[in-house]
Design a protein that fits this description.
The complex is a heterodimer of chains A (about 250) and B (about 425). Chain A has about 250 residues and is of the alpha+beta class. In chain A, the strands form 3 sheets. In chain A, strands 6-2-3-4-18-17-16-10-14 form a 9-stranded antiparallel sheet. In chain A, helix 1 runs antiparallel to helix 4. Chain B is α+β, with helices and mostly antiparallel strands. Helices cover about 35% and strands about 20% of the residues of chain B. Chain B contains 14 helices and 12 strands. In chain B, helix 8 crosses helix 9, helix 9 packs parallel to helix 10 and helix 10 packs parallel to helix 11. The longest helix of chain B is centred in the middle third of the chain and has 20 residues. At the A-B interface, loops of A face helix 14 of B.
Chain lengths: ~250, ~425
């Protein structure tokens, strides 16, 4: 049994936006204390780790654990039909193997989605140690990625002293965005154990920034290791992306 | 006297800049040489004046129709009618059977088809003028149909080689068109085109599932016989070819994403008419890249477009139609094998042999390549070494442009860290 009510369609939209960045099908795990999703993209380059505690829902009840796998395309199409001030009701029709999304606004609209057989099982959580931890305004990060994407298909992130640098180079030129940590800076916290740098695929980062909904984000990475991009959703929920680095070519 | 062969010295000094032909394909005059030397050669092969006499044209249409794009939304439409009677004309619209013909054969065959044309708004497909209704009836047929076209003027030769459509010959303004024979309409075609509630994508997919040829689907789609009744339009042939390739491809793409991956690197290749297609299948999730290169002298330029497992939402603006034409047979084969793979397609064209006759060649060559048993390799390097022997240009220039290759060698995966 699973049943949940969300007061705002906006949050559900943000959740779906986050899923579309790297997934073609979403495997939700409904537990008694909330909804979990941890999946790797088909090319095994990025992972999304989403935790939606029961408290972000206005009503939440779940008996046992349910794995619910849905096509992301279908979810997106439905969420496009949603008004931001609609109340969203989610439930599971176990007999019919369908997932029900009800939008309650001026009209009550009900969509039933066929659940699909998942291609893989949810990933187990594994901790990774990071040498650099940065907290910054989400907008500053978005701008930095967009700036570099003008010239390059990769972005190199460098952390040294009190500065975080985003650079890239391509056939047409180079770009560099530097952020110094400080009170007035968009980068308000930078914790560096050792100076680090790594290169990440632009395609993934530029998709991910589209899904960032919070005001601030946290970046964590190490030299030649994955980067973790985390932000909050509905105050106490979290969405974390992990993106594998690229090797320097020759 | 009409010249039918071009003097050989006209082509000895092409001042074509690298990569230009691949983007121009004979109709944008990018190189500044007017008329295009490649087109000139095509034109010289056909003796138009003697092909058609008089104003009444009687012959068996293969069947073929053409919808122009100039002046959209008011376009020139009409059936393609050769001054020849009989079932042999069928081959004129069946490029699948052309790979083993010579270029001269193809051109003279195509250029004996007269493109008739009459102006009509694209949205007047329902209860249109008689010539259009007859043309639509013709388009439904799968076999050549005897027909009579009354022309306003004698056919004149204004070459229309678009690089994407099949080559087109002389054209003439159309006065009236009637079918003399009975079109032979496959049951599935009749059923699906009579469905006036399903949208065009659904119709196209159903036709594809009923094994109606892509040529036939394109013909039906472009003459406005597929889709929801109020939204049916004439679709310029050039657009409809790629639209059909893409609509079917998108659907297959969705299915392929659910299949397990292949285990090895697989290479398939085919070569005909100055074109080479090499297909490299990779043991990864679906990603597709088309690389195209025209062998135009010392400085070769490779153009590319690619997509990842998510498919693409924007038009492949560099490789254009060829991107979709080559993708379709690859997806078809993966779907049939129930396997998923990453793909790099190398499309090589030698303009000294080839004249721009349409993207069908890449579709047909990719199909032919995949029909034969490919070679399997356990490493990427081995497969690339083999590909090196199949291409006429250095492999490195292709790889330098390839995004998928770059990803393969530089991108790490999360498995290495988790």
């Amino acid at each position: 049994m699973f049943h949940a009510i969300l007061d705002s369609g906006k949050i559900w939209k943000q959740i779906v936006d986050a899923l579309t960045t790297i997934l073609t099908e979403a495997l939700f795990v409904m537990k008694e204390d909330g909804i979990y999703l941890r999946q790797v993209d088909p090319l095994n380059i990025a992972m999304i780790d989403m935790v939606l505690p029961a408290e972000i829902f206005q009503e939440y009840s779940c008996k046992g654990t349910h794995d619910i796998c849905l096509g992301v395309d279908e979810l997106t199409k439905i969420s496009k039909r949603m008004a931001v001030d609609d109340k969203i009701e989610l439930s599971l029709d176990e007999d019919d193997n369908r997932f029900e999304i009800k939008m309650i606004g001026p009209a009550v609209r009900k969509f039933k989605l066929q659940m699909i057989k998942p291609l893989e099982t949810p990933r187990k959580p594994r901790g990774i140690e990071f040498d650099v931890k940065a907290e910054m305004f989400a907008d500053a990060f978005k701008q930095a990625i967009k700036d570099v994407s003008v010239v390059s298909i990769n972005v190199k992130i460098i952390a040294q002293n009190d500065t975080l640098i985003f650079t890239g180079e391509g056939d047409t030129g180079e770009a560099e965005v530097a952020l110094k940590v400080g009170e007035d800076s968009a980068l308000f916290d930078l914790d560096i154990k050792t100076d680090s740098y790594a290169i990440y695929p632009m395609k993934y980062l530029s998709d991910i920034i589209k899904a960032v909904s919070g005001d601030s984000i946290s970046l964590q990475f190490s030299t030649h290791k994955p980067i973790q991009i985390g932000f909050g959703i509905a105050e106490i929920g979290t969405i974390k992306f992990l993106v594998a680095p690229r090797k320097e070519r020759r | 006297m009409v010249q039918t062969r071009l003097a050989p010295n006209a082509l000895t000094k092409p001042t074509l800049t690298e990569g230009m032909c691949a983007q121009c394909m004979g109709h944008r005059h990018l190189c500044g040489i007017n008329p295009c030397p490649i087109l000139l050669r095509a034109k010289s092969l056909v003796n138009i004046q003697s092909a058609v006499k008089g104003r009444t044209l009687f012959g068996s249409s293969p069947p073929g129709v053409f919808v122009g794009e100039f002046g959209y939304p008011k376009v020139l439409v009409g059936p393609l009618v050769p001054p020849i009677l009989g079932d042999e004309t069928a081959i004129m619209e069946k490029p699948d059977l052309w790979l083993d013909k010579t270029i001269n054969d193809i051109i003279s065959m195509r250029f004996s088809l007269v493109r008739t044309k009459a102006p009509i708004p694209v949205d007047s497909v329902i209860d249109g003028p008689r010539f259009l209704q007859e043309t639509q009836a013709l388009a439904l047929s799968e076999r050549p149909t005897d027909s009579e076209a009354v022309l306003i003027k004698k056919p004149t030769f204004s070459t229309l080689i678009t690089g994407r459509t099949l080559p087109l010959g002389p054209s003439a303004p159309l006065d009236d068109f009637v079918l003399e024979g009975n079109p032979s309409i496959p049951r599935a075609v009749d059923r699906i085109t009579s469905d006036t509630d399903a949208n065009a994508s659904t119709g196209i997919l159903e036709l594809f599932q009923e094994r109606v040829s892509t040529q036939h689907i394109t013909r039906l789609f472009s003459i406005g016989l597929v889709g929801e009744i109020r939204r049916r339009r004439l679709v310029p042939t050039r657009w409809s070819i790629t639209a059909v390739d893409d609509i079917i491809g998108k659907q297959l793409h969705k299915r392929v994403l659910h299949y397990p991956m292949i285990n090895d690197y697989e290479v398939y290749s085919a070569n005909a008419l100055g074109n080479t297609v090499v297909i490299l299948l990779l043991p990864t999730a679906w990603q597709y890249e088309a690389l195209e290169c025209w062998l135009t002298g010392a400085n070769l330029n490779v153009i590319q477009d690619d997509e990842t497992y998510k498919g693409r939402s924007t038009y492949a603006s560099s490789v254009v139609g060829a991107y979709y034409a080559a993708r379709l047979p690859i997806l078809e084969v993966l779907d049939r094998r129930r396997r998923q793979a990453g793909v790099i397609a190398f499309l090589e064209t030698d303009p000294k042999i080839w004249v721009p006759l349409g993207v069908w060649r890449f579709r047909s060559l990719a199909k032919r390549a995949l029909e034969e048993s490919g070679k399997k390799f356990s490493t990427l390097e081995e497969s690339l070494d083999f590909i090196r022997t199949k291409l006429h240009s250095p492999l490195q220039i292709w790889l330098n442009r390839s995004r998928v290759y770059e990803r393969l060698i530089t991108q790490t995966t999360l498995d290495e860290f988790l």
